[in-house]
Amino acid sequence: MNLLVSFINLVCFVTMVQSFDLGPLLRIAHCRIQCIKEHSIDGTCDWYSNRSETLCSECWQNCETLETQWDTTKFICEGEEYLRCPACQTACKYRKTRTEEEYLPSSLPAPSRGPVRASANEVAIFLRQVGPSDVNGGWKESGFFSGNRIPSLRQDTWLIVVSEETIRHYSWQEWTPTLESLKEGPFVEASLSWFDVNEQLRKQRDVEQKRFNDRVRQFYLEKYGEKVLVEWRSSQDTPIPEKVFRRFFFRRRSDEYTQPPSLEHQVRQSQSYNGDDDNDNQETYVVSWMPETGGLMGNQVVDTKFAQISLLPGTKYLIRIASNDGPGSFPIEIDTRSSSIDVWKVKKKNDKDLLPWAFLAAIVAALVIIVVIAGVKIFRLSRAPKIIPEEEIV
What we know:
This is Fibronectin type-III domain-containing protein. By secondary structure, the chain is an alpha+beta fold. Among the domains are: 20-171, no CATH class; 198-270, no CATH class; 339-383. The chain has helices at residues 2-11, 23-39, 55-68, 70-73, 79-83, 86-97, 197-234, 242-249, 261-270, 338-383; strands at 123-129, 139-146, 157-162, 167-171, 178-183, 188-193, 285-291, 298-302, 306-311, 316-323, 332-335. The chain has a four-stranded antiparallel β-sheet, covered by helices on one side. A hairpin with a 4-residue loop joins strand 5 and strand 6. Helix 2 (23-39) packs antiparallel against helix 3, helix 2 crosses helix 6 and helix 3 runs parallel beside helix 6.
């Protein structure tokens, strides 16, 4: 009975700190979906300064002002202004029927990897990590996009795609927790840790930086490569030194070279926040688990980077580390069927014992080879004919 009570307590979700409320952003997105459905011709609500404002673009702007500045803009939902403004009517109708509630990032499903896909009647919220984690996790809204104009994921970006029925999100920060142990019993005790998050993200940034460097190199080769070759071949009086020529056309080990202004600005902007956060120990995490086939979701709030959760046996779970300050981790699978637990234990044991046993086997093999070689040499020496000097022959 105590185990059952503790399991139920683990499922209860409690918000312990002030968190990033996505509610206002999601309500604006849902309102703008109505604008696209009612007033858009091509699935967008774009507005250009040199053109007159369209009904869709006016509705798009009204959605944000009614959500964030209701006291000063509510007049557009009243009297003659409301009657003569179709764009106002769409935004005001949504305002009257919407449900105003808090929506925390931990309520989102597990994030997906890019590329981002969306339909015409969906709206994406683009967020960028630009500050310290104690303010909305460092995330700042950087724009809303209709489904056919969604930007790609870049360093430290987060995209939330909203439809009328569902919400999904895409995270550039790909990291997963580590399963430390599984313990059988009435409930399967799973121990998880995520101490290496910064290391995972650092490796991802290194890969992204390498890709960016390759794009810079390609940019220079396409723009100046032919000109440099012609100059190098035709210059006789003052030829280009071979060292300079090779540095231009061949990769240097450090990959340090000048970047074109537009690309340099892009790197500086994308690296304005570098993942190592001094306030990691103050962050609250939400361990979230759900059966792979669907069903009751469990949550446990922790303020460390280690957690132990209780799972029902005979079930395969998807488990992730959510955060009320950002997109959180990608999920891992944990199978609590007894055969899978046995396989996991054997694999874990083999992984721990692999290095010492391999080292011992290598030493034994080396000793055997040395003994065999020595034995062969001794045997050959003993079988070799003995040479008698001529003066000893009578």
